[in-house]
Design a protein that fits this description.
Layout (H helix, E strand, L loop, with lengths): L3 H16 L13 E7 L4 E4 L3 E10 L4 E10 L2 E3 L1 E2 L27 E3 L10 E2 L10 E2 L12 E3 L16 E5 L5 E6 L22 E5 L2 E5 L9 E6 L1 E2 L2 E2 L7 H14 L6 E4 L5 E6 L40 E3 L13 E2 L12 E5 L3 E6 H4 L37 E10 L4 E11 L4 E2 L4 E3 L11 E2 L3
Parallel strand pairs: 2-25
Antiparallel strand pairs: 1-3, 3-12, 4-11, 4-24, 5-9, 5-10, 6-8, 7-27, 13-14, 15-19, 16-17, 18-19, 20-23, 21-22, 22-23, 24-25, 26-28
């Protein structure tokens, strides 16, 4: 795939060759310098994380090839999305968009790709209303997009930083085909948005009457103001406590427990005939951790006694030591929540402190719990939940582009021993998403979905 610029450059190189010769007949044939990426072909598609070999042929009939350089560019803009499953890129299970809003809504059918009985997928700000996540390359202009688009220009990464895998490879005096091993990978800039967890908290399970049953569930949200629940225990001779999952005995034991549990300390008020109880749930407990709110100029991160929520877009220092179990956490046992035995600050541990929240686990070196450095001075260690992509030993703040997107421009530049150079360019597409085995997936809500017959596929 040759560009006009390359053709022009070759013409200039040819002119230089002839201008340096007093007698053109001394050069057999027309001088040439060519480079071609022979593998893979343009627009090849690879899974995220797969190793890819780039093979390049470079030839000249004047002198010899001194080096071949492989340069990887990234693209520049994409539509915004909310990373609901916290994996750092846009993906979602396929669904029937009945109301044409480009996002899954309760009641719409979907393919349960990972068989967890719930819809998994990111929220898309679909600026051009085509129900696809759109992105485009450096130098390209797209029309019809109405805001809600991330814009950030990336340039050639000559210093091999901020890209997972090799972004630039030099081979000198090598025999063709020149071979480069890279990794087809979404780029992260040390940003800990994959673990944008918010502070860990204890999501209290609360009692409710639903139908003719007493249930106790967590709501998945941090409740700043607590909650008051009025619970019917008996009505017209029906004892609803017997409908509780643990039976009547388990219900009364659980009431006693939430009165004394340090993360509940609920108060109870019964009617005169004990047919109703009012439960006053207190403000949910969260672990107040130090943060500079993403400011690189605030030297000392501080406590604020305000819950810092997930998805606030701030690179909090504490989040560099947090991991998240977003799905499947609603039924976590209260007994495992809170400070891990032997690793609370009061235990004076020799290595680390650890707090287990309902959806977030904070595990940090003891020295940083009370003396956390600013995000820009945060060193990489065995407890870090982020990846030091450029191996400089410190956390590098990220740009506003939430996730690098799924295409890469690969340019091979060949230079001869006279300093002349030409280039060839291809694009590869990096695909990620829910892995579907059509022998195992299930369609929820029993509304037919047309599935293409491939055995396995990915969603964009």
């Amino acid at each position: 795939m040759k560009k006009w610029a390359v053709v022009l450059l070759i013409a200039i190189v040819v002119g230089l060759f002839w201008s340096c010769s007093d007698d053109s007949s001394t050069v057999p044939g027309d001088p040439y310098l060519e480079v071609n990426i022979v593998n893979p072909i343009d627009s090849s598609e690879f899974r995220d994380g797969v190793n890819v070999t780039i093979e390049v042929e470079a030839v000249t009939n004047v002198g010899s090839i001194s080096e071949v350089v492989l340069v990887i560019d990234r693209f520049t803009q994409c539509e915004k999305f909310v990373d609901n499953n916290y994996n750092g890129y846009f993906d979602r299970e396929e669904f029937v968009d009945n109301n044409a809003n480009s996002n899954w809504d309760q009641g719409e059918s979907y393919i349960d790709a990972n068989l967890n009985n719930q819809y998994d997928g990111d929220f898309l700000y679909d600026s051009n209303a085509n129900n696809l996540w759109d992105f485009w390359d450096i130098g390209e202009n797209f029309s019809g997009f109405n805001g809600d688009v991330y814009s950030c220009v990336y340039f050639n990464d000559f210093d091999n930083d901020n890209i997972i895998g090799n972004s630039e490879i030099l081979l000198q005096d090598a025999s063709p085909p020149y071979s480069f091993n890279i990794q087809a990978k979404f780029r992260y800039i040390d940003g800990d948005f994959v673990f944008d967890t918010g502070e860990p908290y204890v999501d209290q399970k609360k009692f409710y009457n639903t139908g003719n049953q007493i249930i106790e569930i967590a709501n998945g949200n941090y409740d700043e103001d607590g909650e008051i629940c009025n619970l019917i225990l008996k009505d017209n001779g029906v004892d609803y406590t017997e409908t509780y999952a643990g039976g009547s005995i388990g219900f009364w034991e659980r009431l006693d427990e939430i009165k004394t549990n340090d993360y509940y300390l609920a108060t109870l008020q019964f009617d005169a005939d004990s047919s109703n109880v009012t439960i006053n749930y207190k403000r949910e407990f969260f672990l107040d951790l130090r943060t500079s709110y993403g400011s690189e100029t605030q030297p000392m991160p501080r406590l604020n006694d305000i819950y810092d929520s997930v998805g606030n877009g701030i690179q909090d220092e504490f989040e560099a030591y947090c991991t998240k179990n977003f799905y499947g956490s609603y039924d976590v046992n209260d007994n495992i929540l809170g400070w891990t035995e032997g690793h609370s600050p009061g235990d004076n541990p020799s290595d680390y402190v650890e707090f287990v929240g309902s959806y977030t686990i904070f595990k940090c070196p003891l020295e940083f719990y009370s003396n956390m450095p600013n995000i820009s001075d945060l060193p990489y260690d065995s407890y870090s939940t982020w990846i030091d992509t450029n191996n400089n030993g410190y956390f590098d703040t990220y740009d506003p582009l939430v996730s690098d997107v799924s295409s890469s421009k690969i340019e091979a530049i060949a230079t001869d021993n006279n300093g002349n150079s030409v280039s060839d360019t291809i694009f590869i597409n990096i695909k990620s998403g829910f892995f579907i085995d059509t022998n195992k997936y299930s369609v929820k809500n029993q509304i037919p979905i047309n599935i293409r017959p491939e055995l396995k596929r990915f969603f964009r």
